[in-house]
Specification:
single chain, seven-stranded mixed β-sheet, 121 residues
């Protein structure tokens, strides 16, 4: 059974930091690009950060660039999101996603259950 389990969310003050983790199982983790999304109240789901399955190159939403860092540990089947200098408007449910497209064109797309991040004083 494919599973993505997020952890590390919680309440943090503005300017504070959190590190989210996503533990994967049930698929070949190293062959998947990993992504973090978030969805704030009343807003659409937003792609926050990505890390590729091959080179490990990263990309970030402009609003988080310089403050967030995505990383992966293939030996532990885990992807992380380090979030620094958090802002109240970044209060959201944060979701882990795994994505792969095979050479035959078949898509594989898996989601975690989400973890709540609340930035408030």
């Amino acid at each position: 059974q494919v599973q993505l389990v997020e952890s590390g969310g919680g309440l943090v003050q503005p300017g504070g930091s959190l590190r989210l983790s996503c533990a994967a199982s049930g698929f070949t983790f190293k062959n998947y690009a990993m992504n973090w999304y978030r969805q704030a109240p009343g807003k659409e789901r937003e792609l926050v950060a990505t890390i590729t399955s091959t080179s490990g190159s990263t990309n970030y939403a402009g609003s988080v660039k310089g403050r967030f860092t995505i990383s992966r540990d293939n030996a532990k089947n885990t992807v992380y999101l380090q979030m620094n200098s958090l802002k109240p408007e970044e209060t959201a449910v944060y979701y882990c996603n795994a994505y792969r497209r095979s050479t035959a064109g078949k898509e594989y797309d898996y989601w975690g259950q989400g973890t709540q991040v609340t930035v408030s004083s």
